[in-house]
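lol forgot to send this yesterday, sorry. struct tokens for the thing we talked abt
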């Protein structure tokens, strides 16, 4: 099961022209994440600038493009998770939070 935050949908859909060359790769990566969210992804903590991303994971799409998401079963165990949208969702739900170039994706703007 998957959910997309309004921010993810806005960035993904609004940037479809700007990042048209990545669109197919992003879709493929989202499908891979849904198949196994722990395979080939990175658990996040406190990256630069003190952002608290505990409970979040990151997946690479190309060299400098990232998808930020949470897996509800993992994020529920992190009491410091600021981006938990898992209330009322099953443990297997993947919530896609943000997408974009490295610096913008991790700042969650």
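and heres what i got for the seq, position by position
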């Amino acid at each position: 099961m998957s959910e997309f935050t309004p921010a993810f949908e806005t960035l993904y859909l609004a940037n479809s022209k700007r990042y048209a060359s990545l669109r197919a790769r992003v879709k493929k990566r989202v499908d891979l994440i849904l198949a196994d969210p722990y395979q080939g992804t990175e658990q996040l903590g406190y990256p630069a600038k003190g952002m608290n991303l505990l409970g979040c994971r990151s997946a690479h799409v190309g060299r400098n493009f990232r998808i930020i998401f949470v897996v509800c079963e993992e994020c529920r165990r992190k009491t410091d998770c600021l981006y938990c949208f898992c209330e009322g969702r099953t443990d297997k739900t993947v919530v896609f939070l943000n997408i974009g170039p490295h610096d913008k994706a991790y700042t969650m703007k």
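The CA atoms of residues 14 and 104 lie 15 Å apart. anyway ping me if u want another try
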